[in-house]
Amino acid sequence: MSASAIFAHTMPTPTTRKRVTTLRLVQMKREGTPIAALTAYDALTAGIFDRAGIDVLLVGDSVGNVVQGHDTTIPVTLDHMIYHTQAVVRSVERALIVTDMPFMSYQVSPQEALRNAGRLMKEAGCGAVKLEGGARVVESVRIMTENGIPVMGHLGLTPQSIHQFGSYKERGATTEEADAIKRDAEALQQAGVFSLVLEKVPAALAADVTSMVDVPTIGIGAGPECDGQILVWADMLGVTTEFRPRFVRRYAELADVMTAAVGAYVQDVRDHNFPTQEESY
Ligand code: KIV
Asked: Is residue 149 within 8 Å of 121, Cβ to Cβ?
């Protein structure tokens, strides 16, 4: 879709400004209303996405790549996630805010996972947490949900395990991997997750998981049959320029717009065209 077509398109005003809850997401699956989700890491962009009608804002540990300039999400800390979530919380009125539990904040023991998830809820103010993995995190999911912390699961490509897998390629392409993902989805549902992210798995597998579980699936590179979709905001708005996987549809080319605008500003300063008398006191 071209930029002008997008701007000509009426902005999808949410029917209500009522806060989106985890229960509402389950209801959306039941009524067949697709869930629209994006990442957010700061107050400025999160407020824009919220006013545009986004249902879920994920303060993803992709902040490590997008904002901090790392190659992986591994260096992101719990304190970073608290800081970014606090910023997002300040500007969002409607969307459900979900915060990623970063690498090593939930792997050591279910008790430590519970304590750290508690910090994200209490100090940062998110509405739910997300963690990566299947069978190995089931106990942590159970203890969190039993203690009133809503948890989103994350299966398929799990970027925190990059050094174990060695690549960001599609997961679940073999029968064994696909069966393991289905078993993990079932186990996470049993443990109480309210939703599941499916990342970079074949569309047919995502469709099977979506029909198997009662909780909504949110896909990223997982085809059209998921109950919702999520993208990293900087990818879909064309701020990141190098990363162009086929599952990212670019709705704008903001890097081009920003480069041209900053270039024009530099030129104006050099040419003594900025500021004018009207722009001065
Ligand atoms: O951290 C993140 O941005 C994510 C999404 C890719 C789902 O986990």
From this structure: yes
Same domain flag for 200 and 276: no
Kindly report whether the global pTM for this prediction surpasses the value 0.90: yes
Which residues form the domain of 52?
Answer: 3-250
Query: Among 41, 73, 100, which residue has the most ligand 1 atoms within 8 Å of its CB, making it the best to mutate?
Result: 100
Residues marked as catalytic:
199
For residue 56, what are the β-bridge partners?
37, 96
Per-residue pLDDT of 127-184, as tens digits, reads: 999 999 999 999 999 999 999 999 999 999 999 999 998 889 999 999 999 999 999 9
Does residue 275 share a domain with residue 195? Answer: no
**Rounded to the nearest 5°, which phi and psi values hold at 114?**
-65, -45
Residue 269, token pair as written in the block: 């300063």
User: Residue 111 to residues 76, 137, 140, 270: CA-CA distances in angstroms?
Assistant: 20, 12, 7, 59
Q: Which two tokens stand for residue 74?
A: 């591994």
Q: Pocket around ligand 1: residues whose beta carbon is below 6 Å from it?
A: 39, 58, 60-62, 100, 197, 199, 220, 230, 232
Q: Which residues contact 75 (CB under 8 A, 6 or more apart)?
A: 64, 68
Out of 98, 99, 220, mutate this one to test ligand 1's pocket (max ligand atoms within 8 Å of CB): namely 220
